[in-house]
Amino acid sequence: MALTDADVQKQIKHMMAFIEQEASEKVEEIDAKAEEEFNIEKGRLVQTQRVKIMDYYEKKEKQIEQHKKIQMSNLMNQARLKVLKTRDDMITDLLIEARQKLAEIAQDPARYSTLLEGLILQGFYQLLEEKVIIRCRKQDVEIVQAAVNRNIPIFREAVKNNILVKIDMERFLPSSICGGVELYNDNGKIKVSNTLENRLELLAQQMMPEIRVSLFGANPNRKFKD
Questions:
Q1: Closest alpha carbon to 129 in 111, 99, 155
Q2: Are residues 66 and 163 in the same domain?
Q3: Cα of 212 vs its chain's centroid, Å
């Protein structure tokens, strides 16, 4: 039986409806797939950026922490240097005060004469020469000569040998020093410096550990003692 035009149109509409339904479902499937892939990619990108941001701020935090440690170390070093500078200044002031006390000794003829006798006799024993040249301050020539005269018999008796002592009247020690003498052998190649400044310096070097302990206390970081 032949189809009528109405039947043909009806079948065509039915087929078109089916095709449109299939197309619509395909579009929805494609959209869903695209949405899923988009969300996956978006999640991947977000996670990647999150990791990058976390790494960035972790590095920044480490840099800040390192910077703080360096700053703290610098501050501690500056404070330590300031303490050391203050201590050195105190020791310098102490030595200046000691030098002023030495200068006062030279103003007391009796004390200074006794001190010179000891310094000169010690110089004789250190040189152990038959001929000795002494240099002193110009204002001390008389008191030094008296000390020499008293020490020569003592030295002769002790070493059983003669000694000839001459005061250098051409080259004097600076009048600005506190006092004392320098002793030379005959050719001037051997020298014994027994000025008050030199003796103070030697004494300060020998007693510096004790001086520091007296002023600042024992160093807690020092493991060994002399």
A1: 155
A2: no
A3: 17
